Amino acid sequence: MTGFDVRTATTEDYEEFFALFGGAMMFDMQADDLGRQMFEPDRALVAVDSDEIIGTTRALTRDLSVPGAVVPAAHVTAVGVKPTHRRRGVMSELIRRQLREVPEAIAVLWASEPGIYGRFGYGAAAWGTSYEVDLNRVGPPAVRTRPGELSELAVEDAAKQLAPLLRSLQEHRPGVSGRTELGWQRHLRDKPDDRGGKTARRILVHRDETGEVDGYALYRGKMNWDASGPASEVSLQELVAIEPSAYQALWQHLLTMDLAAKLEFGHAAIDEPVQQLVTTPTALNRRVSESLWVRVTDVVRALGERRYAVPVDLVIEVADDLIPANAGRYRLTADGPLAEARCERTEDAADLSLTVTELGAAYLGGRPLAEFAATGRVTEHTPGALATATAAFGWPILPVSIEIF
Ligand SMILES: CC(C)(COP(=O)(O)OP(=O)(O)OC[C@H]1O[C@@H](n2cnc3c(N)ncnc32)[C@H](O)[C@@H]1OP(=O)(O)O)[C@@H](O)C(=O)NCCC(=O)NCCS
């Protein structure tokens, strides 16, 4: 007897769903047409007590870049429980049911607090880095760009031109979520109420020699003066550029804005190349925290969908208390980063054993499996298996999630 039921949401739940979640997160969510269009009620769950919604969760249909591939991933969000109904197992019931029902082989989320999701088999798979750059110290000075190399785009023209660049980032780096057309609309929406005292969003683009856009940055500014003079702030939301010349020009521009003393950026990768462009990396003032958490919901499909950095042929034993069908031994074989992998059930003896949590943490190539052996969370049964698995699951470019969803 739990005192509540869990059911799939309906279109009519939209307002109450977001009022509940907004209340749990301590902000007033505005119902609007775009939000309604993106709701996907059949992918949302509600906990109800006497017809009142007391808990919510939903999964967004989006894809995600993983090592060597872009795959469907249930993007879990809007996890909330009415403050008067906390600590009675409402969230646990919602999350357990969601994980058993999602059709994708992995589920991913950003956690408001890192203590919550490990118990459900989510592993912290990507570290994110936030910067508070001291622009007076970071260097180097601005360089001159050729005419037309940098310009601003109007928001009406942006989504079409920026979408292919995000896709190329997905091909390059794991951890990056894809955006649908509606997703782009929401991402670029710029309501004055959401600006936090900063300017309207600027859409800065870089063009190659032929005039094609090959990189962009989304940012805002905030005028400020202190006792020593101008101290304005640049707030960088997103910077996407695979071409080195575009990446370099966009960063140099932003790091040398007139009157600015500080640049804030919340979504840098651990191995963000801008660290090589500045003369004083400590002036980036980096702070590392968990970004994307990964839950493997179907081991065979999930391990078969990504690629592996070196050849591998190993039997991995996986424990999973929540999804018993996932537990067992699997043979993983792959011929290096360009080859498709195979993962199938086996009765052979295990070379390595772990729980689904460590598998999730290692899935994007950003957390070495050997790190978990040091605390007993991964056990090696065959000498050499841990080194091979660590190299195979790793990836040359580290994962980063560039958007909290
Ligand atoms: C976080 C939240 C969803 C938890 O809901 P809940 O129904 O109280 O959770 P449950 O009763 O199912 O708790 C399950 C376990 O998680 C733990 N837990 C819950 N919230 C936690 C938190 N914020 N940090 C760490 N552990 C937490 C509980 O102590 C419990 O542990 P136990 O199994 O060892 O007893 C709810 O408090 C909430 O809505 N908070 C504000 C919004 C939020 O942070 N949402 C998450 C967005 S990612």
From TrEMBL:
It holds the Pfam family Acetyltransf_17. Belongs to the acetyltransferase Eis family. NCBIfam families: PRK01346.1-4. The keyword Cytoplasm does not apply. The keyword Transferase applies. The lineage of its organism: Bacteria, Bacillati, Actinomycetota, Actinomycetes, Propionibacteriales. Keywords: Acyltransferase, Transferase. Residues 4-147 form the N-acetyltransferase domain. This is Putative acetyltransferase. Homohexamer; trimer of dimers. InterPro entries: Acetyltransf_17, Acetyltransferase_Eis, Acyl_CoA_acyltransferase, Eis_dom, GNAT_dom, NAcTrfase_Eis, SCP2_sterol-bd_dom_sf. GO terms for molecular function: aminoglycoside N-acetyltransferase activity. Transmembrane segments: none annotated. Residues 177-199 are annotated as: Disordered. SUPFAM superfamilies: Acyl-CoA N-acyltransferases (Nat), SCP-like. HAMAP family: Eis. GO terms for biological process: aminoglycoside antibiotic catabolic process.
